[in-house]
Amino acid sequence: MTDELSTGEFAPLLARIADALERLAPPGPGRVDLDGADAFVWHAEGGRLEPVYKVNRVELDLLRGIDRQIDILLDNTRRFARGLPANNALLWGARGTGKSSLVKAVHAQINADAPGSLVLVEIHREDIPSLPRLLQAMKRSDRRCVLFCDDLSFDGQDAAYKSLKAVLEGGIEGRPANVVFYATSNRRHLMPRDMIENERSTAINPAEAVEEKVSLSDRFGLWLGFHNCDQETYFAIVEAYAGRFGLDLDRDTLRAEANEWSVTRGARSGRVAWQYIQDLAGRLGKGLD
Are 124 and 189 found together in one domain? Predict the structure, then answer.
């Protein structure tokens, strides 16, 4: 009788504990809705995809000086959208040279040729640890998806790269057939050189330590390098923008101003060209829609 009373007294408390534990447990991978838009941003907290109805991008024919990179990535993405085998891609190189612009422009071109055939899902660098959970949900969709991480890199004791390695190639399940992963980075091996050198100098087995760090980039079948553009390419970018947006300025003046702008910034790149164009459009009282 005493035991029965004790159990009865503790039953409500045990029920509350069970409810609290259930609330704390991470949600299982449900079916994500990828039908409402052609682009989304993944928010790991809450496990939701936010639709993006207007992507901030540059038209493919406005990209200059990266013709080979355009051809390779466009061909790889087009095959993937058609249901054929395709590679993960790492776009690495100098800042402002068109890496992320190319990914977004290729996505737009594919969907212009075959509307709705491809979804672009952006995952932020800090949400990489949630990548397995996102992929588990995405594989339940019928749509083909480019999973995109901009400015991907790892520092110090950051261990998130290990989960990314397993997802890209090394895990038991591997990458879902309807997903391909594209990343941009300023670093070819996704890690700073001094970090790699530090591994060599402090590890018991330097070769194995470095191999562990740099092998992540080997998971990408495509490596596309981007380098600082020369002056003529920089001028070509500026002139393409000016023509596209109807910014009427004679060629010599346009080039002189663009050159001065690049000197003050200490660099020539597509990003610097676009910043000059924004300044020029503002001075001329014209929009850039």
Answer: yes
Assessment of whether the complete model's pTM goes beyond 0.90? no
Contacts of 238 (CB under 8 A, 6+ apart): 254, 255, 258, 273, 276, 277
User: Count of CB atoms within 10 A of residue 289's CB?
Assistant: 4
Is the domain of 161 the same as that of 242? no
Question: Residue 56 — very low, low, confident or very high, per pLDDT cuts 50/70/90?
Answer: very high
pLDDT tens for residues 72-117? 999 999 999 999 999 999 999 988 899 999 999 999 999 999 999 9
Report how far apart the first and last C-alpha atoms of the chain are (Å, whole number): 79
pLDDT of res. 17: 74
Could you tell me which residues come within 8 angstroms of residue 183 by beta carbon, excluding any fewer than 6 positions away? 88, 89, 90, 91, 148, 149, 150, 152, 190, 220
Q: For residue 161, what are the domain limits?
A: 39-226
In this structure, the answer to whether residues 154 and 240 fall within a common structural domain is no
Q: Are residues 149 and 112 in the same domain?
A: yes
